[in-house]
Design a protein that fits this description.
This protein is an alpha/beta fold. Helix content is 35%, strand content 16%. The chain contains 18 helices and 22 strands. The chain has a seven-stranded mixed β-sheet with strand order 7-6-17-18-19-16-20, with helices on both faces. α1 packs parallel to α15 and α2 crosses α15.
């Protein structure tokens, strides 16, 4: 396309996807990246023994058609993660293994199960009332954006009227689920934003599941391959590394982008494909609209550390004290006493060793940035050895070449899997995303109450010649690799319309233009054809998981059933004797 040149800021999946679409349409593109690599929040360093290690975004699953179609287009393959055995929820020295959608939480109060199941279903129903493209226009937007997820939890978990112990169990798992989904505390996050995030992920069941869900698969060779291969397709001259953008100026001829070392790159338009909080590092001329600046100021990156362990074999899959007590390695923990929040078995075909991915979230991730390996080892190994009354836990060693705090996470894993024969890891690798100077967190950024309903309309609205990409702007699988790709393609298609038509037409006009062959797409530019290799499948749920009773009804049933059973036994005994 003659005369048009787009400068894209950020060489993650979103920026590279935008560049790919524009290049294929004949538009000249230039992508500037502050780091010395492409990939953004994906990172898959090679390993001489294990092939690769995914230290960033990695999981894909059904309905994530943008990333799955890109995987196929680039000649990559996926594999399913291991989840054939029970899941495990850990809390204060207690283990709850389960094969259902959510834990049964049996150890304190059996009613806690229904407290949890009912509220999970309730939140799932709520998320389907959120407009995924414009959540601030949802029917209950102002009500839901006036409270945090924590406030909703406090209002809806019924056990405040009954056993406070049951409330702790149910709310604790709900908290760990929020941590795992968005790497933020429930008290930090707007209820509207969280519902929107879950709605973008096809609901509470899809976002949490392995089979048929967001954690079903990973990419052979690592997720960063997608970015590397797109960059190769674009050509070295179109991707400039170590180019930290500090200023974006809109001038009469287009845009001028200035880097920290004084270089200037010119184009007719620009696409901003950075995490929203990182956009505050850039000076805009003219200044951003006040509503966009306010939106940026209220966006916060999640707090997350991702670690990878390797063992001689997958001990956690083996039988424990009793036959058949192995677990699949998927663990949640939200009791506040351990640094690990989530654990996933990372074994795959051809890997003889056991592999385990560990996530550390929120306050614990922040705390870890200030802790030395020895401090973590002394504090946690001693306490865990006391809990399990096992001196072997005190002998956890840290190889001198390993960074940060491997024994901290190792100790937790030993605690969780001790009865299943957990042993010293062969290797440890980690990535603390809060320490990345041009990202400063993971997985995504979130909004507090009031932000979306007040400033949300600026999320995707172009600012003159500057358009916005990034996974945070996606209306499907926001926060995921899939959302990043969709957002990049949407921003590129917006510019394509600007170049070909001079404006962005409404949906009906788009469909007409597509029908007559003027443009190659007809919808809102985020729609994707269903992937043929990984089709859309429903999440497997039992009847009770789909229709959990209110806990008070369960309590009422217990109050009738237990006395009636006792009376029946009494009558039977009296009749017999």
């Amino acid at each position: 396309m003659s005369g048009e040149k787009v400068v894209i800021i950020g060489a993650g999946l979103s920026g590279l996807s935008a560049g790919k679409v524009l290049k294929e349409a004949g538009v000249d593109v230039l992508i500037l990246e502050a780091q010395d690599r492409v990939g953004g929040r994906t990172l898959s360093p090679g390993h001489p023994k294990y092939g690769w290690i995914d230290l960033g975004a990695a999981f894909v699953g059904p309905t994530q058609d943008a990333v799955l179609n890109l995987i196929d287009e680039l000649g990559l393959e996926t594999y399913k993660i291991y989840n054939d055995q029970p899941f495990l929820h850990y809390s204060n020295g207690k283990r709850n293994t389960y094969m259902t959608q959510w834990p049964t939480l049996w150890w304190r109060n059996p009613l806690a199960k229904w407290d949890l199941w009912y509220n999970m279903k309730k939140m799932d129903a709520m998320c389907w009332h959120v407009n995924p493209k414009e959540p601030w226009k949802s029917p209950n937007a102002h009500e839901w954006d006036s409270m945090t997820v924590q406030e909703w939890m406090d209002r809806n978990f019924w056990t405040r009227f009954a056993s406070s112990l049951a409330e702790i169990d149910a709310k604790e798992f709900f908290t760990s689920q929020v941590h795992t989904n968005v790497t933020a505390d429930p008290c930090q996050v707007s209820l509207l934003w969280y519902l929107w995030y879950v709605r973008c992920a096809d609901g509470m069941f899809r976002i949490w599941n392995c089979h048929g869900g967001a954690q079903e698969r990973k990419i052979l060779g690592g997720s960063q391959q997608m970015s590397l291969r797109i960059a190769q397709l674009l050509g070295d001259s179109r991707v400039v590394l170590n180019a930290t953008v500090t200023k974006v100026s809109q001038v009469e001829s287009g845009v001028e982008v200035t880097t920290l070392d004084g270089r200037m790159f010119s184009g007719t338009h620009a696409i901003m494909a950075l995490p929203i909080p990182q956009q505050q590092r850039i000076h805009f001329r003219p200044h951003l609209r006040a509503i966009r600046a306010q939106l940026n100021q209220r966006s916060t990156m999640g707090a997350c550390l991702k670690a990878q362990f390797y063992y001689p074999e997958a001990y956690w899959r083996k039988q424990g004290e009793k036959e058949g007590q192995g677990v699949n390695g998927f663990v949640t923990c939200g009791d506040g006493t351990n640094f690990c929040g989530n654990v996933v078995d990372d074994g795959r075909e051809g890997l003889k060793e056991g592999a385990m991915t560990v996530f550390v979230y929120t306050k614990n991730a922040v705390k870890a940035t200030e802790m030395t390996s020895n401090e973590c080892r002394d504090a946690l190994v001693s306490s865990l050895a006391e809990i399990f009354q096992d001196d072997r836990m005190k002998n956890v060693r840290i190889a001198s070449f390993l960074p940060s705090f491997p024994s901290l996470v190792t100790s937790f894993l030993s605690q969780v899997f001790f009865k299943f024969g957990f042993k010293q890891p062969l290797e440890y690798h980690e990535k603390h995303w809060m320490k990345e100077p041009f990202i400063r967190g993971c997985y995504t950024s979130f909004f507090p109450p009031g932000a979306l309903t007040t400033y949300g309309e600026a999320l995707k609205a172009p600012f003159g010649r500057v358009h916005w990409a990034g996974t945070e702007t996606a209306s499907c699988w926001s926060g995921y690799m899939d959302g990043a790709i969709r957002a990049g393609k949407r921003a590129a298609r917006e510019l394509y319309l600007t170049f070909t038509l001079g404006a962005k037409p409404d949906l009906s006009t788009l469909q007409v233009l597509h029908a007559v062959g003027r443009i190659p797409f007809a919808d809102n530019w985020e729609e994707e054809p269903e992937n043929k290799k990984v089709p859309h499948v429903p999440v497997r749920l039992t009847f009770m998981e789909r229709h959990p009773p209110h806990p008070l009804l369960v309590l009422l049933a217990y109050s009738i059933l237990i006395p009636a059973t006792g009376l029946g036994i009494f009558i039977l005994i009296k009749h017999l004797y």
